[in-house]
Amino acid sequence: LCCLRGDRVAAETMSEKKRAASDSADAKEASGGDERARPSPARRILGLAKTLAIYAAAFLVISTVVARLRAPSLPEQAPAFTLAGLDGEQVTLESLRGRKVVLNFWARWCPPCRAEVPMIRSFAESNPEVVVLGIAADGSTAELRAAGEELGITYPILIGDDATLGAYGASTLPTTVVLDEDGRVEMAHVGVITQLHLWWATL
Fold first, then answer.
1. Predicted local confidence at residue 61, as pLDDT
2. Which end of the chain has fewer CB atoms within 10 angstroms, the N or the C?
3. Could you tell me the mean pLDDT of each successive run of 10 residues in the chain, 203 residues long?
4. How far is Cα 94 from Cα 125, in angstroms, rounded to an integer?
5. Kindly report the CA angle at 192 between 187 and 194, in degrees rounded to 5?
6. What whole-number distance in Å separates Cα of residue 50 and Cα of residue 102?
7. What is the three-class DSSP state of 40?
8. Lateral strand order in the sheet of 185-190
9. CA-wise closest residue to 81 among 72, 90, 89, 93
10. Helix (H, G, I), strand (E, B) or coil at 192
């Protein structure tokens, strides 16, 4: 047996071609692996949405706990009231039976009260089955009507009195109280309230 030089050259050439082909295949496989490992835009958006949902849930839980720790201690059954609206019509708690009710105690001079108005308004407009009432701690009919126009309040404003504010423990503003269909207190929240809080409390 013998090996001629030409055979060796041919063998080396063949070996180099095989190595080149193998390297090329490895490169393609690696490239394909990178492409497969890289998440699609849809998956990235889904992952971001999940992360935001987790943060939103954590915010809801923590802020609700803090607000309830600061909230007034109210009886199970909401205190009765009769208050006048800006149109002079009297509104009683009894007349609201059968519907969920959100009572938002606020004042014209209160910056947090003013800040939460867009969120309460949006909730009220999106959930017409829930009665939303803004019970003002100060101001005449004319002053409250002007404040309502300035802030874009579209839900009814009632003129509060000391007895009602005291009965609901609204010494810190804003204070929001949510009642169920039978007039029982579902939630009391002190501080700025969001649509998410209101949605959760009125489920």
1. 63
2. N
3. 42 54 56 60 79 67 57 92 98 97 98 97 97 98 98 98 97 97 96 94 93
4. 23
5. 75
6. 30
7. coil
8. 90-92, 82-85, 157-159, 131-136, 101-106, 175-179, 185-190
9. 93
10. coil
Assign residue 119 a region (left: φ > 0; alpha: ψ between -120 and 50; beta: otherwise). alpha
Tokens of 113: 């009260």
User: For residue 38, what pLDDT is reported?
Assistant: 72
Spatial separation of the C-alpha atoms in residues 188 and 194, rounded to whole Å: 13
Please list the residues that pair with 175 across neighbouring strands: 105, 190
- Residue 7, number of CB atoms within 10 A of its CB: 10
State the residue for tokens 């041919």.
Answer: 10
Q: Residue 144 is which amino acid?
A: L
Question: Which secondary-structure segment (H or E) carries 87?
Answer: none
Nearest in space to 116 (alpha carbons), one of 159, 79, 72, 67: 67
Quick one: pLDDT at residue 51? 82
Please state, as a whole number, how many other Cβ atoms lie within 10 Å of the Cβ of residue 114: 18
Backbone angles phi, psi at 21, to 5 degrees: -65, -40
Count the Cβ atoms, other than its own, within 10 Å of residue 41.
Answer: 7
Dihedral pair phi/psi, residue 127, rounded to 5°: -130, 70
How many other C-beta atoms are found inside a 10 Å radius of the C-beta of residue 57?
11
